[in-house]
Automatic annotation (TrEMBL):
Coiled-coil region: none
Lineage: Eukaryota, Metazoa, Ecdysozoa, Nematoda, Chromadorea
Enzyme Commission number, as recorded: 5.2.1.8
Keyword terms, alphabetized: Isomerase, Repeat, Rotamase, Signal
Catalytic activity reported: [protein]-peptidylproline (omega=180) = [protein]-peptidylproline (omega=0)
Protein name per Swiss-Prot or TrEMBL: peptidylprolyl isomerase
GO MF terms, alphabetically ordered: peptidyl-prolyl cis-trans isomerase activity
Length: 267
């Protein structure tokens, strides 16, 4: 009898443990966001979990409720974005938080956390449409902060990811810059981003191909370095601005990355 009782208690403990583990792998938030981890990563192999500010490489597949594919980049180039910067829909921000590299999830995102009541015409996504994603975290990059300073011209530059001096390939006039950027106005209004096009902006440094403030901001920068830059209107788009997105006399708030640097003597 005692042996039977012990066996029954052990079985119950295993069932409770299995149920708790299942709950850790699947949950639904109060606002309807559903997440299920379909490829977990063992704790000893998960050295970092994604958090705000991390740069993520992501595979995704998007379907409708019937399983019809809307879009996918599995087997192609990963989609790259910075977590917590509004570069993806709110539901995706949350779905990709706390993930290990290699982890895969199924995610159900309600319309209010997706493309809202307007939808997205180019993908035939209707207003308030529920989105069914399979996502995988391919890689994760975490910044190492550096120094901050103000220039003689009135710009503010903050190194958000520094490159050590012995590993720095530094930009000079005439070099070809492959730059990723996000631009906001002073009130936080989003203007433009190269990340949304998944391709860098390419120009030659100090050759008048970009606004003066950007030439200054990218000079002396290391390949792989990231900066936050505040550019006064005199070094940006001036008194006239660039209507309709950039009003006159606008200070420009950039997050920039020197993704690739081709020295002028390498051309």
């Amino acid at each position: 009898m005692t042996r039977f009782l012990v066996l029954a208690l052990c079985t119950l403990a295993l069932l409770v443990s299995a149920k708790e583990e299942e709950q850790k792998l699947q949950w639904t938030d109060d606002d309807g966001l559903e997440i299920k981890i379909i490829r977990p990563i063992k704790a000893e192999k998960c050295t970092l979990k994604s958090q705000e500010g991390d740069v993520l490489d992501q595979f995704y597949k998007l379907t409708d409720k019937d399983g019809k594919e809307i879009g996918s980049n599995f087997g192609k180039k990963p989609y790259t974005f910075t977590l917590g910067k509004g570069q993806v829909i709110p539901g995706m921000e949350r779905a990709m938080t706390g993930m290990c590299v290699g982890e895969k999830r199924k995610v159900v995102i309600p319309g209010s956390l997706g493309f809202g009541d307007k939808g997205r015409e180019r993908d035939d996504i209707k207003g308030d449409q529920t989105l069914y994603y399979t996502v995988q975290l391919v890689d994760l990059f975490r910044n190492v902060p550096g120094e901050k300073w103000e220039t003689e011209e009135g710009m503010t530059i903050e190194v958000t990811h520094k490159i050590e001096a012995d590993k720095c390939k530094k930009s000079e006039s005439g070099d070809t810059i492959h730059q990723q950027y996000v631009l906001h106005l002073e009130d936080g209004t989003f203007v433009d981003s190269s990340w949304s096009r998944n391709a860098p902006f390419i120009f030659k440094l100090n050759r008048g191909e970009v606004i003066k403030g950007m030439d200054l901001a990218m000079t002396g920068m290391c390949e792989g370095e990231k900066r936050k830059v505040i550019i006064p209107y005199e070094l940006g788009y001036g008194e006239d601005g660039r209507p309709p997105q950039i009003p006159g006399k606008s200070r420009l708030y950039f997050d920039i990355t020197l993704e690739k640097l081709i020295k002028k003597d390498e051309l």
